[in-house]
Amino acid sequence: MKPFALDQSKNPPALNGLDRLLRRFGRSAYMVAVLLMYALVSTALGLALAPALWAWAQVHPGLQRLPGVLPWVAQGIALAVCFFIFGLTLLVVVPLYNWLLPTRVKPFKGGYYTLHAVPWFLHNGLFYLVRYTFLPFVTLTPFGVWFLKAMGMKVGRHAFINTEYISDPQLITIGDDAALGGSVRLCAHYGGAGNLVIAPVTVGHRATLGLACCIMGDVVIGDDATILPESVVLPGSRVGAGETWGGVPAQRIEREDMARIKAEIRGLPGTIR
Questions:
Q1: What pTM did the predictor assign?
Q2: N or C: which end of the chain has fewer CB within 10 A?
Q3: 116 or 96: which carries more pLDDT confidence?
Q4: CA 141-144-146 angle, 5° bins
């Protein structure tokens, strides 16, 4: 059987000559795209660093004239402040890049090496620049929620988002009063055998996603539903309103079974009540 990366019959028709070239030389095109992404994010990092470098230049000469060990203490504090100046500036620069560049992600199924996948590649590349640098410092703060919204994520009123492990924010919707526990993983895509699928994720009002659960692309979680900790909700799952799902892969747990499980837990010796 022909590998999917070479089987173009499953891809949407090529958009133009450039798209046909990308499909023919997929690996080489991907390498070029990665290098261009490095160059692009370097400019974003440079713009975000500029205010921090300016602030450092203003205070550094005066700090060196302090007596004894105070220069080292003061410079350490000043560097820490400059780091947060850089990070907060990055929260503004990256959404600006995301708005200016062709990053409008749409649902898609096909090959990685096509023009259709470029917006997804750019959008996540920019988002990861913050996710792996500064986003952990502002998760659970208004700055973090603002950044997610600025990157296109739809976040309802009073939603509690205690995770930075997010991909494809443009295609994720979080309802009012939803609660996402620590280290929850949300991604609106999945793939395998060279096949990329980009599909939205919806988390309903007042839904609860337990600690470190994983929600994959093409998943809808209804209002008041609960996903138990460490569960994996596979693509295509539809969690009904008020339902409880758990396990790997996650499946619906009936209320009677959940009540029995809770009763057994409460009856274990040494369990904290």
A1: 0.88
A2: C
A3: 96
A4: 110
